[in-house]
Amino acid sequence: MRVVSGIQPTGKPHLGNYLGAIVNYVKLQDEAQAAGGECFIFLADLHALSQAHDPAELTVNTREMVATLVACGVDPMKTILFNQAQVPAHAELQWLLNGTARMGWLNRMTQWKDKAGKNREGQSIALFTYPVLQAADVLLYQATHVPVGEDQKQHLELARDIAQKFNNDFCPEDAPLFTLPEPYIPPAAARIMSLRDGTVKMSKSDPSEMSRISLTDDADTIMKKIKKAKTDAEPLPSEEKGLEGRAEARNLITIYSALTGKSVADVLGEYGGQGFGGFKPVLGEALVEILRPINARFMELKDDQEALDAILARGAAKAREHGIPTLDAAYKALGLVRG
Ligand code: ATP
Ligand code: MG
Fold first, then answer.
1. What separation in angstroms does the CA of 331 have from each of 29, 54, 172, 175, 339?
2. Ligand 1 pocket test, candidate residues 8, 17, 47, 192, most atoms within 8 A of CB
3. 267: which of 98, 152, 255, 258 lies 20 to 30 Å off by Cα?
4. How far apart are CA 193 and CA 240, in angstroms?
5. Which of 264, 262, 259, 167 is nearest to 213 (CA)?
6. How far apart are CA 137 and CA 135, in angstroms?
7. Which of helix, strand or coil describes residue 237?
8. Looking at the annotation, which residues are catalytic?
9. Per residue in 294-337, pLDDT tens?
10. Which of 28, 151, 184 to mutate to test the pocket of ligand 1 (most atoms within 8 A of CB)?
11. Separation CA 18–CA 223 (nearest Å)
């Protein structure tokens, strides 16, 4: 069992990152250990270059992201926790895979279309080839399980296509180089939506702070954001089909259900018929309860730059070592001569 996943240090991690991905990092690090496998979680700082960024902020965000992940339960003794910039094999393998990935495949990626919007010509090449770096990230370690939110499912399918084509084109039939990775997506919270618009996903890069709950928000901020979250004027329905066409209501119910472990049907059974004025404080309190210990731990860790850098350095050394066999084999399969 090889678990591999990444998160961009492009801002403060939010509830969508937590419920969609980080909860599963923590779960799978234990499962990998029990199975005698490994878990690799990396900060995708190379991916962060795909959009405009401030170098000083990237440095701060990278350390804060380590502190947040550890505060959420990612244990550097169980997980190989590192940043891409310290493991050059990610960028190297991306280049090798650039020969295999097709323009047509990348052109179909919805993240590319969403993030580029109408201005495709003005985007960085890194934004376009983002999924190839992501393929390199997971293929380098022969990932079997990739815990991600639903928005990354398409990129994982592309990683499988790249792996398959590389194996077909350059490897003997009985000795494929790359393992085909499987996405590991939580059924209940695969796609948490913005608090301002129930049709777009919650994102670090959304310009509005009010669109997301950051994992480091304090209790007052959480209660304020939930109170201001967009809703409609109808009371909550008693059954799930009543959520059809009510994206914002569905999102708040989904969040509450994921936080408490209660099914959507049970939540609606309990709160159906009530207005948001009654439900929002209940949701806010549940969030505050879950995030309080994470927040406290984050505050303890965040200023210890030395300790955070040491975690990354240790993780990177291990990651470099684990990546060598696959990278070497990829060079060799392509017929590249190296001393
Ligand atoms: P950015 O806006 O910079 O792309 P992001 O919020 O999309 O940031 P990423 O670092 O790209 O965060 O993604 C980290 C992980 O969180 C990925 O596994 C992704 O699928 C997951 N994720 C991101 N947003 C959500 C969401 N709204 N719901 C569930 N999972 C999510
Ligand atoms: Mg993203």
1. 30, 34, 15, 15, 12
2. 17
3. 152
4. 17
5. 259
6. 5
7. coil
8. 115, 201, 204
9. 999 999 999 999 999 999 999 999 999 999 999 999 999 999 99
10. 151
11. 18
